[in-house]
Amino acid sequence: MEYIDAFINGFLGMVRWTWKSIMFEVPWYTNYFWGLIVISLLVWGLEILFPWRKEQSIFRKDFWLDAFYMFFNFFIFAIIISGVYKVLEVLFADFGITSKSLSLIDFTGWPQWLQLLIFFIILDFVQWFTHVLLHRVPAFWEFHKVHHSVKEMGFAAHLRFHWMENILYKPLKTLGVMILGGFEPEQAYIVHFAAIAIGHFNHANIKLTWGPLKYILNNPVMHLYHHAYNLPEGHPYGMNYGISLSLWDYMFRTNYIPESSGKIELGFPGDEKLPKGFWGQLVYGFKKPKK
Ligand SMILES: [Zn+2]
Ligand SMILES: [Zn+2]
């Protein structure tokens, strides 16, 4: 009974929250619905004003597919899965495991900006690591192929990914929060919005490298090579796995940026076999790939 209640409450809570966000009934800085739209329009505007690949259409290939993916992964799937996550939370709590169980770093009393910075860095590292696994574990790569099926790059490609990725990223993200004693800093929304904006930029048709900061911050030139069709020698699984930070790739020698024309072929060998539409991609990746 407890679990059924948790499922229904988790689900309805998320539906209500999303609806209130659409209706502007939540504090503006927690409004991810309109926040995502505003960030998207800003980055798209910059793409139109300062295009890197000038011949690329404003409505590039699969623009609308990716626009739909943004709302699907951020809101529709989040609603669908919210009940399941709530049940897991209650289930783990019944076993005495809560988000406070690990608590390796005690934040309390630290300056707010430092808390946010550490939260951002830890979360980014666990996501970088998960991303490496998506490339190295064959079963995970099948799902991650959806993100790598982008043939023409633009900001909205950021959120074209298989719904299973939400699930694969979750355990390590939760572990990251547990290390911090289950503590999301009060202003964590700054971190979340920054991550959305950086992710949009990484996929945007804008030549941006952040100057010397490129060794810390991921950027469109570096991430375009992450989507390269042909993998260079020495990087059989891929390179430039960074999410918001490029730091990890430089630390672990998985960085690779030979040039910056922006005109490389994107995708992966065999991408023509991946379903082209949303529904085909939705159920893709569960069957064992044929040799
Ligand atoms: Zn990837
Ligand atoms: Zn990408």
UniProtKB/TrEMBL annotation:
Task: Name one matching Pfam family.
Answer: FA_hydroxylase
| Organism superkingdom | Bacteria
Q: What is its EC number?
A: 1.-.-.-
Q: Does the keyword Nucleotidyltransferase apply?
A: no
GO molecular function term, any single one: oxidoreductase activity
Q: Where is the Fatty acid hydroxylase domain?
A: 117-254
Where do the TM regions start and end?
Answer: 32-52, 64-85, 113-134
Per UniProt, subcellular location reads as: Membrane
Q: What InterPro entries does the record point to? A: Fatty_acid_hydroxylase (IPR006694), Sterol_Desaturase_Related (IPR050307)
**Keywords assigned by UniProt, alphabetized:** Membrane, Oxidoreductase, Transmembrane, Transmembrane helix
Tell me the PANTHER family matching this sequence.
STEROL DESATURASE
Instruction: Kindly provide the name given to this protein in its UniProt entry.
Output: Sterol desaturase family protein
**Which species is this record about?**
Flagellimonas iocasae
